[in-house]
Design brief:
There is one protein chain. Helix content is 71%, strand content 0%. The chain is an all-alpha fold. It folds into 2 domains: 95 residues, no CATH class; 110 residues, Alpha Horseshoe (Serine Threonine Protein Phosphatase 5, Tetratricopeptide repeat), CATH 1.25.40. The protein is built from 11 helices and no strands. The N and C termini lie far apart (43 Å).
């Protein structure tokens, strides 16, 4: 009961924070909590928050576009509109927001709401992976290491999974070992060189964003 009350107080407090001060991951944390408890007591606050988010999204704010996409995708009843969610997700991804690129990549990899497209998923994951998002690095590595009979590409698989493993991402190290087992000594050297080249590219991108 105490945990429920603490979380409800968190939700109430959340609405007092200006939208622009709420991070993407904060939005997701809020929404996860909101989904765990009935929101009828906060419906007017939630409606106001959604309106505020939509206005910012329409003005071109990438984080607001991503947040609105999550509400539309994960909401219940009339609040759910997965087709519109994809529209806003694409807009945020077009602005290279890492979380949006990753989430849209998942949609295309698994064919959720959109047609399955592994190539497009890989391109979206790469955008996020070059912003050093470990889950995107992991998914991209696995796309190069398919288990459905397609030809594996162990060199890029090893490089991306190595970067994800350095973040401690679950199962990345294990799958890196799987990729390494497919490499000859010469290919292992190439894979390590690719990993270092990607690391430098990530660092250059980080510097440009500062």
């Amino acid at each position: 009961m105490k945990h429920t009350m603490d979380s409800l107080l968190f939700i109430k407090a959340w609405f007092t924070i200006p939208v622009r001060q709420r991070s993407v991951w904060g939005v997701l944390l809020f929404f996860a909590l909101a989904c765990l408890w009935s929101m009828h007591a906060f419906s007017s606050d939630l409606d106001e928050y959604t309106r505020e988010i939509r206005e910012l999204a329409q003005a071109g704010d990438a984080e607001a576009q991503f947040a609105l996409a999550q509400f539309l995708d994960l909401g219940n009843g009339p609040a759910q509109n997965r087709e519109e969610a994809i529209i806003w997700l694409r807009k945020a991804a077009d602005q290279h927001l890492a979380a949006a690129c990753y989430t849209l990549g998942l949609k295309y990899e698994f064919g959720a709401t959109v047609s399955k497209d592994r190539q497009l998923a890989a391109a979206l994951y790469r955008r996020a992976a070059l912003q050093d998002l470990p889950m995107a690095q992991y998914r991209l590595g696995l796309l190069h290491l398919p288990d459905d009979g397609q030809t594996p590409e162990p060199i890029p698989a090893f490089a991306w999974l190595s970067l994800a493993a350095e973040h401690g991402y679950p199962d990345a190290a294990e799958n890196r070992v799987r990729a390494a087992g497919l490499l000859s000594p010469e290919e292992r050297t190439q894979a390590e060189e690719m990993r270092e080249a990607l690391r430098r590219q990530i660092e250059r991108q980080r510097q440009r964003q500062r």
